[in-house]
Specification:
416 residues, mainly beta, 2 helices, disordered N terminus
């Protein structure tokens, strides 16, 4: 049977099985000569309510909890329905037969938003559901005695495990302002770690060495500042991770790094034609025992920004100052979860991201974003869970003005 025919029949069969018996929707089909197709995914929906104080005022004040423009004049109360930090996803995995000791596979992950107004500006009407599909994952892997090679679009290494170990990854966390309307919530993005993004890359990971792995990648370069003219060098990332179980205690630790340079525009007001450099380090450790899991992660570096790593083409770019120099940024996230019963898990975490002002013109620069979340999760069965959260978030600018928000979320997730 041709591989294209197998994939087509597999997609149809997976859809039919999911529709007829969703509790057993995880399927694996075997084709001719050992080719396999499997599917996995989640469906999640959260209702959120946020009560947020007005913007402190000042034209150009960056990264309000309500909008980008910083023009809010009164307290805002908003109810919404949509996906949480992680969108819903359906993924398909095609596995080739082992050849010459190498296991090869392809993964395609499709991440749709469920809410209407699925555009960043919030201008679409309630009948407009596009664009609401994100092909975050589209890569192949080749694994053998030498380790693993990954080529394609996947989660970047730098700060990747910081976000993956946040309990609000499968929750809501911080509910963002109108600039994100129609997209995901933030979790602790900008409130304990930065968003690493999914990007095209060549990645090599070593074999498991007594619980330790090392990964390096060459990835798509990003703009560092709003004045970036050309990205003429690759984004280089590396990660070392460790995972081991000692008796009844599961331990993991990781450290990751980033380096990239980019050339500033010849017409930039500051340092025209010169280079900016993003350098960063991140680390974390977690331990789980007797139903308790403790986790601490952090990051630091220069030319990073306050929301997305290297935010030159992102809203409210803050990676560099008015003099064209890289700002210093750092942050951390501390977390405790406890399995009260086999079905009920309690969790609490607190994180903050900070940035150092560079010049006297940075009066309205946001210098601190902090948030704490308390959650209760109930597992109806091994496929369905319900989550309730309360989050308190506060933003502080360089002139000591603050804005805060009380936020509630209630949602459910189905896994297969």
């Amino acid at each position: 049977m041709k591989k294209s025919t197998l994939l087509g029949l597999g997609l149809l069969a997976a859809a039919a099985v999911a529709a007829s018996n969703p509790a057993n929707a995880a399927v694996e089909l075997v084709g001719a000569n050992g080719w396999k197709l499997s599917t996995d995914g989640i469906v999640d929906l959260y209702s959120t309510y946020a009560s947020t104080t007005k913007n402190p005022g000042g034209a150009g004040r960056s990264l309000s909890l309500l909008s980008v423009g910083g023009t809010e004049t009164k307290q805002d109360e908003r109810f919404g329905m949509g996906i949480g930090l992680l969108p819903s996803v359906i993924a398909f995995n095609v596995t080739a037969p082992t050849t010459s000791g190498v296991d090869s596979a392809v993964r395609v992950g499709i991440y749709p938003a469920l809410q209407n107004k699925a555009n960043a500006t919030g201008t679409a009407n309630r009948f407009d559901t596009a664009p609401n599909i994100d092909f975050r994952e589209f890569f192949y892997t080749a694994k053998g005695a030498y380790g693993e090679l990954l080529i394609g679009r996947a989660l970047n290494l730098y700060q990747g495990k910081n976000i993956l170990n946040d309990m609000t990854l499968l929750g809501a966390g911080v509910v963002p302002g109108t600039a994100f309307r129609g997209n995901t919530t933030l979790g602790h993005i900008g409130y304990g770690y930065l968003y690493t993004n999914f990007g095209p890359q060549f990645r090599y990971t070593t074999p498991d060495m007594a619980g330790t792995k090392v990964a390096v990648s060459i990835g798509e370069p990003y703009k560092i500042s709003a004045d970036t003219a050309s990205t003429n060098s690759p984004r280089l990332e590396a990660e070392i991770s460790y995972a081991k179980t000692y008796g009844g205690t599961a331990v993991q630790a990781w450290a990751s790094g980033l380096y990239q340079s980019a050339t500033r525009s010849d017409t930039a007001a500051a340092r025209p034609g010169e280079k900016n450099t993003s350098t960063g380090g991140a680390a974390g450790v977690s331990a789980g025992f007797s139903g308790i899991n403790l986790m601490l992660s952090g990051y630091g570096g220069k030319g990073l920004g306050m929301v997305s790593v290297q935010d030159g083409d992102f809203l409210g770019s803050t990676a560099t100052d008015a003099a064209g120099n890289e700002r210093t940024a750092w942050g951390y996230l501390a977390q405790v979860t406890y399995a009260l019963t086999p079905s009920v898990t309690l969790g609490v975490n607190y994180g903050q991201s900070r940035e150092k002002a560079g010049t006297a013109a940075d009066t309205l620069l946001i210098t601190s974003q902090e948030a704490g979340t308390a959650s209760v999760t109930y597992g109806l069965n091994k496929f369905i869970k319900f989550t309730g959260e309360y989050t308190y978030a506060q933003n502080t600018w360089n002139d000591h003005a603050t804005q805060h928000s009380n936020q509630f979320a209630l949602g459910s997730t189905f896994f297969w």
